[in-house]
Each structure stands twice: as C-alpha cells, then as structure tokens.
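Look over this today:
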Amino acid sequence: MSMKRKCIILILITNLLLVGCSNYKELNSLSIVVAMGVDYLPDENQYNMILQIINPSAIASMTGSIGTPIISLEDKGRTISEAARNVTKKVSRSNIYSHVALVVIGENLARDKSMNYIFDVFERDSKIRVNIPVIIARDDSVYKIMNNLPALDKIPAKSIVGKINNTSSLLGENQEIQMRQVISALSSSGREPVINGATLEQYSEISETLDNFSKVKSSYNMINGLGVIKKGKLVGWLDGAPAKSVQIVDNVIKETNVQVKCNNKNEFDSMELTRVKTDTKIKMKNKVPIIHLNVKAIGIIDEVLCNDNFDKAKTLKKYEKLSEKEIKSTLEKGIKKAQGYGADIFGFGEKLHLSDPKVFKKYEKNWNKQFAKAKVKIDVDVQINNVGMRKKAYPF
C-alpha cells in the first residue's frame, strides 16, 4: 500500500473518532410516545393534543413495577403543532414519536374540521410514521378512550389495536385502517375513507387507575362501527352487519359468520364463512353507474338450533340459499346507507378509473353524486363444505 493511501485512511479514521455520533441521546433523556390523540374545542377554537407516554418504572422487570404503565399529558394550541409543543412544558424528557402505535381523533374534530388538514401535520413530519392505525373516539372524549387502563394489556394503545385485529379476523365488521390508507382515500377522487370508531364502556372514576384491574367488570374500550368520511368530514356511521359490506367489497374478510333464520319461530342457525372473494365490475349506462358484485364464499355450519338433518343434500342446498340471501341483504344495506351519505367508501370510482379511465374522467369531479344514484346487482354463491363434527342435530 502506498504512503498516500495510508495517509488517506488515517485521516478518515481520525475524522470518525472526532465526530462520533452527533445526534446521540441517552435513553434516560427520552420519553417514548405510544399514542397520540387530537380533538377540537369549538368554544375556544383550539386543538387539544394528548400524548400517551410509556412510564419506564412501571414496566415489569426483575425488581417488579411501580405506578401506572403510562403517563398522559395534554395541552391546547391554535394548531396541532403548537398544541404538541405546548405539551413539552409538562415533560422533562424529549419526546420520541417513532414508536407511536395509535392515533385517536375526536368526533368533534372529525365532524367540524376537514381530515385533509388534520393528517397534513402527520404526513409532513418525518418523525411520525403513517403506517399506524387511526380511530375515532365515538360519543366520548379522546382522553377517556385513550387512557382507560385495560385489564389484559398494560398499554391502552396496544389493547385497542389488538381488539381491531381480533374482531377483523373473526367478525369482519372492521379492519385495521392505517393513516396512510385514510390519506390515500382523501387524495382520491374515486373513494372516500372509513375510520374505525371506539367507545368506552362502563366508565367509572377508577377507569384511569390501577384499581380498574381489580374489578371483574372493569371498564373497557370497544371497537364500535365504521365512520363514513365525505369530503374530509365525518358524516355518519355504519353499524353491525352492514359494516361488513366494505370489507366484503374490498376482499379483506378473513372470517365471518351469518345467522340463518331456520324456522318460523324466529330461531337461527349459525354459519361460518371463509374464503370470501368478491369480483366487482362497473360501467356507465345513460350516465348512471351500473355495479355488478359477484361474491363467492365457503360455508361451515358451526351452530344448529333447528332440528335439521345435514345428511341430506336438500338441507345443505336450503342453507346455502338462505346464507346467500343474508349476505346479499348485508351488502345491499351497507351500499344503500353509503349512497344516502353520498360517499363512495367502496372505491367503485377507483375501479371504474382502472377499467375505463376516459369514462371516469367525465364524472370524476362529481363522482359521489353519481355513486348516490348507482344501480347495484349482487350475485352470491355459497358452497357448504363442512357441517362440523356432528351431522345430525340433537333431538328436539
């Protein structure tokens, strides 16, 4: 190696040793933010920011834990950024936002202010990820929804996200909706966003304390409905079975079930549905969208309250037809309600844009109005391939 190369390498090593880590910070000088809440105070014309921070001393360790697992701080400001910076007056450490796991939006804010401006601050700030779940605090304060201490999970944000994923896998009325998905839908002219709602049940004075753990009937957060967004504002909710319609059209149903009315006594049997796949076709005819949904699913009988014999092919055929009728009704109710709100939360406009961009261009500016008068045809095909461990019902 030449003397010149040796000198260059020596200079580089020296520079590295001298510079070190210029942005290095000790862990005990940081506070880790795990959830953020934002609401609007109309009487004050200000935004309220709530930060949920990990309490290191309360995390279980060899020596046990002390105090509540999280610390909640809040402050107000004329902008969301100002409110967040005002919170710094109340915390002794620098806030780190890279571990935020949940963003909670107040219902006042969602109804009164455009979501476009709310999410601008999150997307513009490089310190915050946009691939995190977002929910709306339905019929309650953001502070209460965020800071109820759950009985099963130490961290409230983790508990709420876990409930979204759990109900998404088994019921299908909700799915995990990330901030990036909401931003994408807000930016689209062919789709409006939906956002999961959450409510607080059995609230009491001890809901935000460790005493909540000691009660059998403790307070808890519940995933409750899909918020329908139109032009950036919350306009209403989809509740119950009709909320499944969004997941069915989007092909994100992992597993769900339908209750099939099996006799004239208002009794029901239950059928689990898996492999739910929807093919969507859309075209314009006389300036009216014609939407055709073709749904296919596999059915499994998982509960029988009627005295039917599943050894017979005609019984299986009967239940296939009944479940098909139920799924069709679920889709019709969900789509009709969305049309009433004038919000294409199914992305039919995006699908038309993909299949025929020139046609969509003509209706792009007023697509929600076009969607409101759309005609929808729904075909459903359910094939039962399993009736469980027992073919014959118990004698009634």
